[in-house]
């Protein structure tokens, strides 16, 4: 990381990140407190006022701090750490104004100037300015969704739960506020159930409000609490319409997650089903069908080891490095390439591919055209030949042995069948690539021929 | 644009477009007013009648105007601007009849002829002819959905909200109309709650109707307002069945939008996860893993700069123009191509590709087979060589320098490793393409060799 | 179609198909009548009994008829028309037993044998055997879904509506039957609302039953009608659980249809958005950007004319026939191919591709490597050259003229820029294909050269 | 399978699998009994106690048994069968502790030590430890979902039903327990409906509890049973919020299944629609359009026979074996390859592809460039030639006859049109592959020429 001016904090500073995370927790408190204090004014001007003041103070500190935090220029991708530029950028945007407006303790100022305790509902609504802080939570989730260290499912799930709870809480508190402000208490949703609901405990009122709100959101709608007057009916209508949107959004997200998580299982099942139907429709012999199935099952088990498509998109130098790391040691120990120059091995290795074979599967068929040869990286294979109609095992090959190289070197049909004995990892290089690489290396070609003849 | 006959308006005329947009607003008014006037007849024959007459007059103007608007022939793709053809086309279709029928002010005509004010419900239902105008809104949305200047999400969202509100409003008004027309007022959904609901304010009635309608649509179903007589039960049944369809349609659309918006994030996350799992399962060294991750992250950041697949579908001449614009200046400044003919540069440029490398990533590996060479468009790279097992920095290359050209020109393994120092943009051309292009240009080949030897 | 045995009807016979369609209508009647007759026994033994008997008689005729309808053998794909085989196949399956069981008029038989009119609920339940006939409707929908002459959307939509209505109707009727069979009428869902509900009109009872059933299915649940005794609660529970499944199925299907219908719009919008972002990020000049956009918009407009991917999957002979139909006449009129043998034209034509260019787009760029040449099928293009930095129009080409052929014939960089004047359709053949085809035709090669020199 | 130590059971042992399946049934009983016994304490300490004890005993046996079951090492993929290792692995994990804790019969122990029968609710809650056993059901479903022998749809469906029923049952029982524990019975959800609900039958209480629970889950919410006190309201809220998640999950899964099942139908319909639109927009002649449609329909009918993409991913030796099985006998009987060496046939066969043609479709067109030749595996074709503008049938070919081989052998335009007479299966080999294979086999080439000349 580059060095910054004095008294300037880098945005990726670990301590600054923790500070930001701490602020997010305070934001969640603000999001809960703002609607709550509107509904239950006694609490707002009582015990919660102290906490609110502390929270506001901390956010005031953050506003000051922002003048000392470097920022990333979007067009040059560079970190700007000049005091003046940082200040201009922050002040000239709407952020600064909103940050300040959401931090000023209007109620306390009013009390200091007028000496009165209650200032009416206007302060309750001014509190909603604090919801501006919610953009921090929104930013956090946007960042987490792109961070592969966290599960997308749970990040998204958390976000949806937060959104739902906030909607439910706000609606409940607002609905309660409506009841307290209605003239005839008997004609309110809660007043028609409980007499003197205002003098009862906050806990009871909050439970009723949340119960109504959740009953409506989930569309259960028991009907034990329902709108009594026109104002309540109106708010109810808006809330219900909003809820269709929210519910559809929840279902849409859940469907998205379910569909995505099932993609791999479907791909696996579909492939196996198609192959198995192909085999039975074409009446393939049972032994061949078993080979195919064993191969497919192994393929899906080792799918994380074989990301050919993803690797193919990487730049060539990185791919070569991967190949060298994976295959170089095995290739160097193969008898054919003993004493061969390092250049040749590096070039060959970068064209090689790993393949996995389950037990009892044919890797090379006798008499087939030679297109590839194989080095056995792990496991064991049998060399077989058909004589007078019966299979005869010629020899057994193990780690670092080679298979199919005779066909490739002399360009003749493969003289043997090669069949895996147990789970094998083999390294494959194609006839054509091998020829291309070997051509300019005369001396290495000689060494390979000598190696071959000595065996 | 071609010139049109006198007194003929082109359909793409800016002023005509604004007129059409203005009509859409009036259509929305009509859609709201038609059901409303059925339910609340006093308003229909009172204050709203004036507005209705004005709106009808404006639509009458539009009918006349349509005779002067050219149209696009669907088979020849040409604009037809002959008065006669336009008139025949308009009159011979159902559109004209419906446009006229939806504009005639039946109620006013009736009043003029009979002198009576109320004409019964028949006029309320005749008003529904005006809903024919809704096809204008439907056409507008169909056009907006295909217009990439507008967000698909919000266009679709707006459409769904409009459809929902219209359904809710129509059902509510119709339900109220049913109550007013039922013999025993006590046995209606609203009469059982409010006495003399017909003599109460329109505002109250409308709120009750909408409240019932939204409660039913959202399936909350509190039960405080419910069908009392058989007729109401019947209508309720149809409305509820219609609502399943509407709700399913809303959820289906929301799911579609959510799934589509998440596609890119999923693609990014899946790729990174797969590669990271591949790296750890194959126990790749940490430094290589970091190179891969840095490359992937850069790739997703610069994805908008590298739309290879989309560009590949464009015609060849456009692709060449893009390449020339992007690469020509950089290639001309490369030392190897100084003094080379313009033809050769144009041809080379059209086969080039831009690539981005994050810092500390290998672009070329020592000893690998030369397949491409690179011109550095921005950033800086190091030339490294391995001697006695340690890396030595030979030199540093910057803008317009070339890398890997020695291997390509002499077809030998790359003599140096090339590694990026910071974020680099490099232009790549393949060995094979370069050879193909240079072959017929003998003199240019000479210049390149001379350039190479002079350095 | 092959000829069949005497007295054997082919399953694809038009009259037989109409008969089957007519039966489907009767099946729908049965599906409605079976639950209805259980709930309202008076009707079942009254007016509906006649209709039921007629319907049963018609299905009895169909059973007999089935013995004379040939069937398709699933393994040989041949039509079997032997009386014996048809009979064995039909009788040996469960179909025959069920067909007969669902046709026997148990109630009438009982009345004939015992002389009594009512036989208790057992006949109501025996009626449910008729629901076996529903498999005909299910088969019909399965066939319609695969028939491209019918919209998938509406077929699916109809099916879902049918399923929903049947579920709602059955549940409602069964619920009414429960009420009529409960000892204490006051303690039933309907009895607690209406006294003597059994002596009231069928119409009223049916409306109440359907109202309850739809209120529950849609989860509106007003609560004005609800389960009163344990039996009703139990049935209600099963119905509600079934409804979650049904609702999820409805939403799933709707989502599927919405997602599918939006695929094309999304593909179009995404491509245009990506290209436009690519152009602005890479700061491509405005004129080039307009060319790209014009090309993309034309491409999406003419997408139905250019189904390259689908056509590529057809067998070679069909593809050749399509090419001949589309291009042969244009190629024959091109000056270069006058007098050339029919063989050559046929071979060239099968390698050609049509392309569309919007106005003012470059088709060939001056100095680019010749890879294709073009025959103009419709529209007009300009030949341009750059001299002293300014564009000069050399000539204008129209239908059957050729562009880019000089570069291809002499393998030199294109001497001119070719730019479309209006919407053009051009036929393209690649350099490489042209050479391959012309090689063995010496005399045709001579004619082409002569044609070229004469111009 | 490898041999294991004495007294060690293999996890894939058939009898052990049945034992595990038997345990799953007991788990389902436990899942039902745990909440039930909390709500209805009399049953728990009565008749169910015996069953509970037996079930606990069986699970105790399974704990002991686990010490004798070999396990699969995740990193080496080997079966570990050493007593010590198995024991250490089991005991050192949380599994063992939880297994034991969920099996100890706390209530019986308490009774033995204190002599009292009831131990309060604490034992009801301790019973919930048994729900730990549910992981067995979860594992079973995870395994079934990957097993292609079972339908994914029904497996998933079953799982969703199980989850839903368990949620509904637990919530109902807990809700009933809340009512029994509330001081003022009149103020509980059930007490306000039924007096002395505790002394009524368990059956009645359970029905009411389940009825409430399902009414809430499905969001029907009739309102006849609803929360009366604050505690009930709180639990209701949690249950409703949980239900949104569950419902969204149900819908998401259903959508996933519906979308997946429709994929194939959509692919088929879209292809046919696109081709048919292409044909009509390009005004292709009716006969050609019919050929295309016949081909497409046949293709979708035989899609299970032609899994080219899936087969292409199999290793080369398996693909060769499949080709040999499918084509070898047909190729050996073709006149051209009589007497040819086995090697050649094996090599040719591995490059062959099967294709299906509907009746009256052109396989080869006269004068087209020869790219493939065909061996007819089944069906019949006509050889046609155009003379003086009319088609003449030259001959008819059947099984094992060849078509198009003259063009390929002499590299001349095809002399005849080949058209299918009925449904044909033909085997195709490309010109290029045939040449590659035949080149090194001089003697076989001679035989083929001789065979050709003899005909």
- The helical percent of chain A reads 55-70%
Strand-residue fraction of chain A?
5-15%
Distance between the termini of chain A: 57 Å
Low-pLDDT sequence parts of chain A: none
Oligomeric state as shown: homotetramer
Largest interface: A-D, 65 and 56 residues
Query: Averaged pLDDT of chain A, please?
Result: 87
Give the spatial strand order of the biggest sheet of chain A: 3-10-5-8
Encode the helix/strand succession of chain A as letters: HHHEEHHHHHHHHHHHHEEEEEEHEEHH
Cα Rg of chain A: 36 Å
Largest sheet of chain A: 4 strands, antiparallel
Number of helices of chain A: 18
Tally of DSSP β-strands of chain A = 10
Shape of chain A: elongated
Query: How would you classify the helix and strand content of chain A by structural class?
Result: alpha+beta
Protein model, in words:
4 copies of one chain form a homotetramer. Chain A has 455 residues and is α+β, with helices and mostly antiparallel strands. Helix content of chain A is 59%, strand content 10%. Chain A has 18 helices and 10 strands. Chain A has helices at 14-39, 41-44, 47-66, 83-91, 94-101, 106-114, 121-126, 134-146, 152-181, 202-217, 230-281, 286-301, 308-312, 316-333, 342-349, 405-410, 431-438, 442-454; strands at residues 71-72, 79-80, 353-357, 362-364, 372-378, 381-387, 390-397, 402-403, 417-420, 424-430. In chain A, the strands form 3 sheets. In chain A, strands 3-10-5-8 form a 4-stranded antiparallel sheet. Chain A has a 4-stranded antiparallel sheet with strand order 4-9-6-7, with no helix packed on it. In chain A, strands 1-2 form a two-stranded antiparallel sheet. The first copy, chain A, is elongated, with a radius of gyration of 36 Å. Chains A and D meet through helix 10, helix 11, helix 12 and strand 4 of A and helix 11, helix 14 and helix 15 of D.
